[in-house]
Design goal:
297 residues, alpha/beta, Vcp-like ATPase, Chain A, domain 2, Rossmann fold, seven-stranded mixed β-sheet, four-stranded antiparallel β-sheet, binds S-adenosylmethionine
Length: 297
Amino acid sequence: MSKRGPFAAGDRVQLSDAKGRLHSLTLQVGGSFHTHRGGIPHDDIIGLPEGSIVTSAGGTDYLCLRPLLLDHVLAMPRGAAVIYPKDSAQIVTNADVFPGAVVVEAGVGSGGLSGYLLRAVGERGELHSFERRDDFAATAQRNVASFLGEAPANWHVRVGDLQDELPRLPELQGRVDRVILDMLAPWECLDAVEAAIVPGGVLCTYIATTTQMSKFVEILRLRRAWTEPRAWESLVRTWHLEGLAVRPDHRMIGHTGFLVTARRMAPGVQPFVRRTKPAKGAYGDDYVQPDVGTDTP
Ligand SMILES: C[S@@+](CC[C@H](N)C(=O)[O-])C[C@H]1O[C@@H](n2cnc3c(N)ncnc32)[C@H](O)[C@@H]1O
């Protein structure tokens, strides 16, 4: 699959019509793509530069472009909900995923984040992805391979729960630079993550609800192995741009998930005691302290 130059057999192409309707296909010599506005022979597209327009047998024009990773993620088959590209961008930046890094990710779900992590670690890095459902792991591998042309050699997908599988890998203990968790109960993985991640390593958790986020953050604090967690969400508002009518679009995606990051303390070193008093009522009579886990340092 070529990423540059004229379209070739094996390339993914995204066709869009004047109304913005999208179709994706893989080019094959002699192949044909059928729309309700007539067929388009793949041979009409092979050899053209990106940004060309082809016309179907029924007379409709289609713009031909290679899909961007964000187009692919939003269109690919989903086993589980994907991390949206706007959150993947936040994760790569705030978890500081760098070329050459050793990164652990769980769960893989549909592979929505994996492609971005593979790009960020580059060929010298390693991505170790864990997924408890084998059908989802297979979907993720197909999704990433269909964008990249093949699953890269530095991507290791393992089926099973992170908290069970990661401790079984001696080669990863004390070697992992970054850990990204996207699952219902990330607090269940903290024993395994604390053993594998390097001092100063970044843990980044994507979490869907406020109740999960609160439980996760309070447990993280009580373990006294992490810097003070930082939490945020990102909202992206697209704009309508037409002459003098320049305004935010009426519709937006109002909620995807929250992100929490913290960094691993050195072994045996405890984080600072918080100097600011908790807000009145924050830990009042109704507050129930969550169970902190079994191997609290
Ligand atoms: C929301 S999906 C992940 C989506 C994925 N990040 C993406 O962008 O496509 C959550 C996944 O975590 C998996 N999961 C939940 N707990 C897990 C665990 N402890 N270890 C491994 N996978 C887990 C679930 O099976 C599910 O597929």
